[in-house]
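User: Predict the structure for this protein chain, please.
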Amino acid sequence: MKITIRIFNEVQAAVKLNTEDTIDREIKILSIVTGKPESYFYEMSIDRLKRKIRRTAKRLTRFRQHVPSFFFLSGRLYKVQKDITRITAGQYIDIKTLNTDNVFENIHVLCAILCRPVTERKYRGELVPDRAKLFYERLSINIAYPLMVFFFRLFTLSSLIILQSLHREMTTESEGESSRQA
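Assistant: Here is the predicted structure, written as structure tokens:
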């Protein structure tokens, strides 16, 4: 079973649970990741349970570091917009409105803003909510996590560059309108 953004977020919530018994928390996490009921794990031998916990912990902490340029999801090819200076003003505004206190809660929305099907030529903000739902339920954390790290590092470093680029674009458009009116 692949670990989707939804499963990853549910695991993050389970990790934060204040249970005195770590075995209970680990069983809850195993149940979330595998989709099996908690009772299945309570009936397991300790040795087998420990092996499953170790294996699951590796799956939850070892992510690809490579940021893909493209990925397939639900029969569609998506392009990742890696050049942050080429995002539209709409994308910039949508990103700035995200709550960055807990990045994991919004990883699917960030991916929906910066990744779109190759058949879509222009950014359409009205499609982001549906795409974000799809990404939340179906996109593997192995794709989403490196994208999130990449975009947030890049975005914080290049906010000034983006603003300068948008200013240049607006200046060029207003100069073009002025020359047409003259």
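The chain is about 60% helix and 5% strand.
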